[in-house]
Amino acid sequence: MVEFLWSRPDGTASGTVVMAHGSGGPMDSPFMERMAGALAAEGLAVARFEFAYMAKRRQDGKKRFPSELDKLVAEMRNAVRLMAESGDCQGPLILAGKSLGGRVAVTAAAEPLAPVAGIACLGYPLHPTGEPEKLRLSPLLNCKLPLIIAQGTRDDFGNRAEFEALSLPKPLDIVWLEDGSHDFGPRGQSGATLKGNIAAAAAAVAAFAHRLAASEEGSAA
Fold first, then answer.
1. Residues 56-82 as b or e (16 or more Cβ within 10 Å = b)
2. How confident is the model at residue 86 (pLDDT cuts 50, 70, 90)?
3. Given Cys at both, which of 18, 44, 45, 160 links 153, Cβ 3.0 to 4.6 Å?
4. Cβ atoms of 109 and 138 closer than 8 Å
5. What was the pLDDT predicted at 218?
6. Max CA-CA distance within the chain?
């Protein structure tokens, strides 16, 4: 059974974000807490959930490796189905994820994924750390939905220079977070802050949601 952890804005939400965690941190990790709070401050309702392997770790405290990608995709599709059936969505539905969660989300979007309107990756793992030759391009190339990526410029899983050397599909927006690591944190001497980078990522996702809403309204007119 999927359990959602909600962070809601004051008033009516301009969109709903279903958000998955990364490979090693649960849905209430510091990053996920900060990100959900920042998205809610931008007017989005955020429903976090955990993959089964992480939910089991919460139950018994035993560390587990992530399940195979196809199983994670099936779990994410199930979370989307449950959210759609719940009637709790306001505005366009965005499927988002931190690192592994984003990779799963964009992989799931290779097939029809109604009612999801767009995908948001928060630190996309373009390759395993230290192995830049093992590119994970297929999910990006095969994604059938509008996609936004918020990425630290010095992310060990894919930095700005590595992304800009690629021919990536459109529509794909990449928002660069100044001196950000994989968790968006900058170095002290950079002048940027973790709070500022989290806020910039949240603002970009909120703007993405507004564009999706405008597109849906235009299609319905």
1. ebeeeeeeeebbeeeebbebbbebbeb
2. very high
3. 160
4. no
5. 67
6. 52
